[in-house]
């Protein structure tokens, strides 16, 4: 390892250690107003309006996005644009979260004045508890006085990490207070792999006439026609509208010597593995992979067939 590479790794470790120490300190010195701020957000009828400038603005955008995607309506307003008409985006039902490490950011002054004029609750994140911003705030979320991780001690590094982490703490605390569940999460994340993982079986299953359901008294020649026409390679066999069993290609091979003399109930394998409509599709995929099957009959709480799920449906949806 060259001297330059050794020095680079040393610098990286130093930066991470400085920021890690600061995060532990923030955890141990959580702002007194954190709890009251959570209560205020929960009682807010509008949105949490987040604003900042420069690096604080970048962090603010992420905090706002995290809040919005986890059940707390939020919107980011650019501090400079606010003075040129965007103050109209902030209503009396909203609550503001303003971010400034120094607490003296001039671009925030018009937003601060707007919140005071219209009695809009305002939270502030800053490392300077005696700053103008913090003194004006209703809820003061002060960061610990930790050194920046850069070599000159000026570039926003530790302070932005602390701000981002404090924003995450707000979002997660609000999630848990709102009892925000995975199905709620998918509403705001419908795209990509994450959305696919949050999909429910009921959203992907085939229903209605597509489902190969036959009565247990159905002659096997008719059962074969149903299996062939529906194209799933199985038939769900019912008795009194409840799932009795499933006929698969394996069942057909095992009973080939007397197949046409039997009914569907005679051939079906009973107590088949099933899925429920409110089950996560990813869970259904795990069952398929574990049991080495490619199709699941979806039943309700009374064991009545509701639909059918094929592994190809999971592949198309991006679950697999």
In short:
This protein is α/β, with parallel strands linked by helices and 320 residues long.
How is this structure best described in words?
With 320 residues, the protein is an alpha/beta fold. It folds into two domains: 3-180, Rossmann fold (3-Layer(aba) Sandwich), CATH 3.40.50.10490; 201-317, CBS-domain (Roll). It is built from 15 helices and twelve strands. It has helices at 3-28, 34-43, 55-69, 79-82, 109-117, 132-136, 158-177, 182-188, 192-197, 201-204, 220-230, 249-254, 264-267, 281-291, 311-317, and strands at 48-51, 74-76, 95-99, 122-126, 139-142, 213-215, 235-239, 242-247, 269-270, 274-275, 295-299, 305-310. The chain has a five-stranded parallel beta sheet. The chain has a four-stranded mixed beta sheet with strand order 6-7-8-9. β4 (122-126), α6 and β5 form a beta-alpha-beta unit. α2 packs across α7. The radius of gyration is 29 Å and the shape is elongated.
How would you describe this structure in keywords?
single chain; 320 residues; alpha/beta; Rossmann fold; CBS-domain; 5-stranded parallel β-sheet; 4-stranded mixed β-sheet; 15 helices; 12 strands; 45% helix; elongated
């Amino acid at each position: 390892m060259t001297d330059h590479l050794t020095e680079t790794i040393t610098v990286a470790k130093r930066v991470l250690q400085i920021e890690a120490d600061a995060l532990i300190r923030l955890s141990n010195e959580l702002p007194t107003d954190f709890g009251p701020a959570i209560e205020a957000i929960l009682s807010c009828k509008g949105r949490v309006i987040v604003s900042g400038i420069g690096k604080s603005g970048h962090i603010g955008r992420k905090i706002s996005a995290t809040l919005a995607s986890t059940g707390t309506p939020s919107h980011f307003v650019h501090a400079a644009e606010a003075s040129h008409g965007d103050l109209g985006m902030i209503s009396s039902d909203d609550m503001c979260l303003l971010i400034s490490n120094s607490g003296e950011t001039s671009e925030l002054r018009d937003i601060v004045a707007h919140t005071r004029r219209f009695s809009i609750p305002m939270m502030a994140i800053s490392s300077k508890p005696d700053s103008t911003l913090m003194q004006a705030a209703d809820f003061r979320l002060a960061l610990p006085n930790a050194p920046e991780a850069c070599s000159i001690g000026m570039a926003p590094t530790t302070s932005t990490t602390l701000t981002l982490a404090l924003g995450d703490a707000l979002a997660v605390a609000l999630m848990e207070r709102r009892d925000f569940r995975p199905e709620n999460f998918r509403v705001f994340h419908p795209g990509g792999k994450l959305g696919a993982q949050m999909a429910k079986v009921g959203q992907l299953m085939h229903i209605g006439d597509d489902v190969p359901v036959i009565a247990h008294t159905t002659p096997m020649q008719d059962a074969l026609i149903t299996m062939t026409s529906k194209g799933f390679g199985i038939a769900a066999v019912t008795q009194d509208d409840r799932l009795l069993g499933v006929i698969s290609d394996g069942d057909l091979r095992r009973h080939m010597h007397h197949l046409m003399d039997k009914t569907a109930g005679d051939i079906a394998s009973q107590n088949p593995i099933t899925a429920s409509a409110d089950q996560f599709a990813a869970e259904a995929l795990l069952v398929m992979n574990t049991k080495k099957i490619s199709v699941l009959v979806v039943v309700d709480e009374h064991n009545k067939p509701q639909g059918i799920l094929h592994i190809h449906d999971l592949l198309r949806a991006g679950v697999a």
